[in-house]
Amino acid sequence: ATPMSVMVGVGKAAEAGVLIRNGEALQTASKITAMILDKTGTITLGAPKVTNIHLINGSDDEDEVLQLAASLEAGSEHPLALSIVESAAERGLMPEKVENFAAISGHGVEGVVGDLSLLFGNEKLMHDKNITVDAAAVEIAQQMAAEAKTPMYFVIDGSLAAVIAVADPIKEDSISAIKRLQQNGIRVVMLTGDNRATAAAVAKKVGITEFFAEVLPEDKAKKVAELQKQNETVGMTGDGINDAPALALADVGFAIGTGTDVAIESADITLMRGSLHGLADAIAVSKATLRNIK
Ligand code: ADP
Ligand code: MG
Q1: Which domains does the chain show, CATH number per domain?
Q2: In this predicted complex, what is the ipTM?
Q3: pTM of the entire structure?
């Protein structure tokens, strides 16, 4: 490509809110055959809200449970944590001091509040910590997941106290943006650390048939490599710290402009408007640029 045509292409893309960091990425974008989309914060808004607090035997005070959960999550920066803290604040519940706090990446959080030891997270975390989750609680969580919500288990002193679910709305134009990619003949794959049932429900809503769920943060890049081994030219789109290695490994990495700095620095292209339509826009500019060269 001539430097001139690339400059024109970069300018055109910028008008559409698509910031291209290097000319090579602009040229590779037109060759993308598979696009991996992170779920939380990429397809969805990344601003989950608490929708259900289902108390389990023993606990009968919803506010008390929510206050404890919020006290624990006050130490975490995860979007799920923020939703719990906000929901408690809306009810006027003030977080208490947490000690021995630990975030367990891709699983949840633990800590001590007062004389209670607390644990909050997914099924994997319950399994790893040997917490008994009876069939009824699993069924409640599965019901929530089938509604595209993310269920989490809250444990006080080793016993399950509640199943708390949050819902993260899908960006209003994600469905049409994904359809545009598919109409370009691109294989669209969703990637998430969230549980399988929730992932399946979200994928279905946005018209994606292929997805990887329950992927640990350190394994996201492996999914990019897997598709590359299938001879795909892989685009990866994400917003989180978790996504950074995958963004760097992909043939073209796209960061959501409202995402974390680490994601933006690891990507080749930034979608300033947060909309996934920036992907098809970038690919269209890339194709036009290459046509001008020939
Ligand atoms: P994502 O790819 O959706 O950003 P993560 O890998 O960060 O997912 O987390 C995967 C799962 O681990 C979450 O869906 C949740 O069940 C659990 N989890 C992670 N962090 C927390 C937290 N701070 N509180 C409760 N659960 C958490
Ligand atoms: Mg994300």
Answers
A1: 3-45+170-293 (3.40.50.1000), 49-167 (3.40.1110.10)
A2: 0.94
A3: 0.92
